[in-house]
């Protein structure tokens, strides 16, 4: 079963895609790190690399609720039982309204 998600990657425009409903597929989207999640609103969650700061990943998105998140991340929905499900068209529009991509700043060389 495929999941329709919105992917955010540093320096790129958000994109809509589908992934398999597996941990491996989710890890591939975020670059292979430990998958962590944070509720954006209602049944919509953003999944990201829990070790992104430790791995020095670049800034990616900003939300009013969490501030800046680093590294690739993606938004999806959970059903009433807490299982991942695809985003609806209305949910995609709301995700794009509340999650703002941030431009990565160039690294300063010492």
Keywords:
alpha+beta, 6-stranded antiparallel β-sheet, 2 helices, 3-stranded antiparallel β-sheet, 110 residues
Describe the structure.
With 110 residues, the chain is of the alpha+beta class. It has one domain. Helix content is 15%, strand content 42%. The protein contains two helices and nine strands; from the N terminus they run ββαββββββαβ. Strands 1, 2, 3, 4, 7 and 8 form a six-stranded antiparallel sheet that branches. Strands 6-5-9 form a three-stranded antiparallel sheet. β1 (2-8) and β2 (15-20) form a beta hairpin. It is globular. The N and C termini lie far apart (48 Å). The mean pLDDT is 89.
The number of helices is: 2
Q: Quick check: average pLDDT? A: 89
What share of residues are in beta strands? 35-45%
- How big is the Rg? 14 Å
- What is the rounded distance between the termini? 48 Å
Main beta sheet strand tally, sense and closure: 6 strands, antiparallel
Count of extended strands: 9
Number of domains: 1
Poorly predicted residue ranges: none
- SSE series: EEHEEEEEEHE
Summarize the amount of helix as a percent range.
10-25%
What structural class results from the helix and strand content? alpha+beta
* Large-scale geometry: globular
């Amino acid at each position: 079963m495929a999941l329709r998600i919105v992917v955010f990657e540093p320096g790129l425009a958000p994109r809509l895609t589908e992934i398999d409903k597996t941990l491996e597929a989710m890890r591939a989207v975020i670059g292979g790190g430990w998958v962590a999640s944070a509720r954006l609103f209602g049944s919509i969650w953003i999944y990201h690399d829990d070790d992104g700061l430790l791995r020095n990943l670049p800034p990616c998105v900003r939300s009013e609720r969490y501030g800046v998140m680093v590294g690739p991340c993606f938004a999806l929905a959970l059903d009433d039982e807490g299982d991942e499900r695809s985003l609806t068209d209305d949910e995609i529009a709301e995700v794009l309204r509340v999650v703002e991509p941030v431009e990565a700043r160039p690294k300063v060389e010492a």
